[in-house]
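Issue 218. Parser rejects a valid record. Input:
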Amino acid sequence: MAFYESDEKLSKLSNYLKFIANETDAKHVYAFDLWVSATENYKRITANGLVDKIIPIHGDAMDMPFAEDYFDSIVSVQEIYSTKE
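Output the parser choked on:
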């Protein structure tokens, strides 16, 4: 079951999340999404058995509420806006 069942391109995004959650040493994966609510993503995450690994957050990736240097790495998939340098 894909996280985004109705949109094939967005289904690929869920595959990235599943891969990172299952195939890396990441303790937690933060699924930051501007277009899908955290509640809706949580339902999909739970349905896929990944509630212990993936944390859904609704918000703008340009304004994430995390301390500088909080993450070891960040993966951006299907970003449609340009970022400031």
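Fixed in the parser; the record now loads. The chain has one domain: 1-85.
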